[in-house]
Every structure is written in C-alpha cells, then in structure tokens.
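Cross-posted from the bioinformatics board.
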Amino acid sequence: MDRRQKTAMTRRDMLSGAFRAACGAGLVAALLAVPARRRAEAVALRPPGAINDADFLSACVRCGLCVRDCPYDTLSLAEAGNGQPVGTPFFNARKIPCEMCEDIPCVVACPTGALDKSLTDIKAAKMGIAVLVGQETCLNFLGLRCDVCYRVCPLIDQAITLERHHNERTGKHAVFIPTVHTDKCTGCGKCEKACVLEEAAIKVLPHAQAVGMLGAHYRLGWEEKEKAGKSLIDGIIDLPDRMPETPAMPAPERLPGGGFKEFKP
Amino acid sequence: MSAAREPRRPGLDRRRRDGWLAAHKWLVLRRLAQAGFLAVFLTGPLWGFWITKGTLASSMTLGVLPLTDPMMALQALLAGHVLETSGLIGAVIVLAAYALVGGRTFCGWACPVNVVTDFAAWVRTRFGLKDAYPMDRRLRLLILAGVLVGSALTGTIVWEAVNPVTMLHRALVTGTLFTGGAALSITVAVLLFDLGVASRGWCGHLCPVGAFYALVGAKGLVRVSAVNRDACDNCMDCFTVCPERQVITPALRGAKTGASPIIVSRDCSNCGRCIDVCAKDVFIFTTRFRDGTGASVHGPAKKVLQGEKML
C-alpha cells in the first residue's frame, strides 16, 4: 500500500511539475512576445495639442477619450510596435490624416491635459512638420505639375507654396517645388495622405526631426544687426587675399567617350 | 450533511441544499457587475448608443460624469503633472466611492482581470494543484511603493507600461484583444502565472492596483461578517474559495478571544464567495458598524436563522 501510494504521489508530482514548467515557459513566452510584435511602418504622430514628448507620458492616462471623440477615426491607441508607448493616442498620416476640426473635439475630450486645452485655434496646432523627403521621386521635382500636396493643404499658399525654379535637366523649363513653411504647417498630414506616389514623397515628421535645431550659442548676424540697429562689427573687415603661389593647373582635356586625357588614378 | 467532503468542489453542500443559484448568488452578481462595467463602454462602439466613453483609466459617462483611476492621477501628480479639472474630479469621485464602500471592491466587482485569475484559481482547486511558490502578500505594497517612486523618478505614469487591468479593459473596449497587441500577451501571462507559478499570485500578491484600493477602502462601510460562526463545522470551503484566505481566520475563529466576527482586513475584496459556499450560513454582508448579531437581527440575520431551521 505504501509503495503504491508513493508511486501514485510521484506520478502526480511529475504531472503537476510538468504543468508548472509549461505554465512558466508559456509565461515567459507571452512576455517576450510583447516587444517582438511588428515594427512601426509609419511615423506615429500625436493628436493636436499634445504637450511635448517628455511630458506626455506624465500626463496621458491612455483612456482613449480623444480617440472616441475623433469624428474621422483618425486617432487610435497604440499597440506594441506602433512606434508609441502602448495605449497612447497616435495617428498615421498616410492612413487617415487629421481633418483639423475647428472645435478640436479630441483636445476638448482630454481629461488630463496631455492634449493642451490652450490650443483653441487648430491652425496653431503642431502635430509635426511636413518634409518633402522624396526629392528624387516627387513628380514636381521631376518637372511635372502634380501639385497634389499643395492643392490639398488646408493652409494652401501658407503652409505649402510652389516655388518656381529653373529646370536644370531640360535647361529651358521651370519646376514648381512644393515648399513647406514650418511656421504655418500644422502637421495634419493631408499632403502625405494625398501624395500620388506608391510611397509618399512628402511625409509628416515630428517637429524636432523635421526642423533641426541650431546650437544655443549661434547668432545670426543679420538679425543681431537689426536688433542693435547697426552692425555689431565696426566697418568691414578686410581680410588679406590669399593667392595661389603657383598658377592654377590647366583643366584636363575631356575625351569624347567620357573621362579625361592623361588621367591617372 | 453526512456526504463526504470534497475539497476540490467547495460549496457542494450548500448547492445540494439550496441549489446552484443560491450557491453562486454573489458570484453571478459579481460577473454581472463586471460585464456591466464592460457593457456601458461597449454600447457606443457596437450600436452607436454612447453611455460611457473612454476606459477604466478615465471615462466620461453620458457626457456629465467623469471617472478617473485615482492611482493613475496620483502617479501623474508624482510625475509632475496635474490633471485637468474633469480628470481630477473624476479621480476624487472614484476615490470617495471606494473609500466609502470599502474593501477591495474594485478588484472583486469591476476589474476584468479578476475573471481571469478567478478562473485560474478554479482550475487549481478543481485539479487539486498545490501552491507552487508561496509569496508574501505584502509584496504588492512594495510594488505599489515602487510604482509611485518610479513615477516620480522617471516623470512618467510608469505602471501604465505593464498594467494588465487597463490593458485588458482597453483591449476589450476597443475590440483589439485578438489583433496582436500586448494586452493578450499580458493577460495570458497573468493566467499562466496564477495557474502554474503561484496560487492567487497576481491579484493576491503582486498587483499594486489592488494594494492601492486596499489602502483606500481600509475603513470602508461594506464588510463581510462571520455572524453565525458558532455553526461553523470547519469544512474549509470558505478558505478554499477565498482569494485572500488570511482575512477569514481572525473573524471566523475569533470567538475564543472575543474578536468581532466582522472581517476587517483591508485585503478582503467583498466578493462574497464565502457567503455563497457556506452550507452553515456563517457569513453575511453587513456594515462595519453592525456585526449582524444582537440588536440588529433584521434582514440577513433572520434569513440565517431560517436557513438553520431548514437543516
């Protein structure tokens, strides 16, 4: 009887041990699966009025009220791998851009202040800045008159203008370069959404990534001059001209098939 | 009542006597409450009739009633951010409600993770799995302290990075539980943890949300009382089903020392399962100020006596 009991206990222990091990392994696997989700395929932009990134996670409780009150289903709450911390609101401009509602319902709904209530004019929103990243694929850069990003911009002729430049390729035409003005662009992403290319040539990026930043010690001479009312330097500094000591080499002779005569690598 | 005890089927005696529904009354009510807390969030997205928007983290009911998770508001505060007025009002309302009702009522009646961990506990009981790695139940207080200090140090609401409560609720409300998010992973992890690693591991030992509500509701009104403790026949069914079994002993076994039959531990989640399973009608829901004996033998206490007569 003792023997039998002992055997039964051992078998039971073994089974429950295996069960525990399976649960433990599954637990670890489940936790490891979290960061292994698909990676972000697009820049995850914050809703209008979002306070700066460093403070956002001290304020946002990830309740999703902004998402619920977005009439265009632009906003959603991030899943692991969407490029923002899980549960925080974001939108992908290429999927659904911000329609820039005048009453900004997402900001009104926010119970935390992660979306700043002092934003009352949607045109002052800074969700990001559009950047024409595809300068080799943009149809306007190629000399066509696509102009779609310019046309769909809610702040046409302010946030995006078309700047006429000489078409260096043909030598006799003009190109109209869509040019974003960072002081006006709200980052709504209508341009990115509307771009006709397979992959948008114009993309909304977070402000810091899009604009860059001067070193704090940089001074722009022309601005300082305006502020001071005069040049900060007395007179024109006449630097000595440095001439090459030996006459410049004559330009190498071009060969008809390309390359240069007497060229030695 | 001479049937052999079945430790893996607590409440069987009560069920045989009063039927399944009576032996699961509070459990059914709790599940209805938990379903209700989900349903008010789901009528909008499903049928366009909005009752409550948001999630358990923060919500707006019928456009007038803001509710905010007070632990979240506290973390935000420590992280250096004061919520908007509506968010703060919501946090105060929730705080006041749970302080008044008392106990970890949130855990037992609102939290969606409770369904998961209750299921794990049911499986453990049914298959007679022994406690694998016993932990100290005060661990959750330590984690709560860590969360609050962590929020202050990092300037973020740190618990939200991993919080299974809001993650599961958010996933259920937005219908994203099975779309490959973190919520499913975390929920499965909690389930497996409770199944294979520690009995009542998550809610009973680690979850700082529960620890927070325990502190909030420590002096609350609604309590369970072992009013009829003299009738206890030590069948142990209440201990088997109780998610915080340590809270029962002082009240149930306190007759010798003259201790009150009221379960005063802040860890009690007011789930009422002990009332459900007890075939001797030992337990009742009452308030902190009436232990159910003596002068106040109205209502529940009377029913207890009737139950005794039936035997």
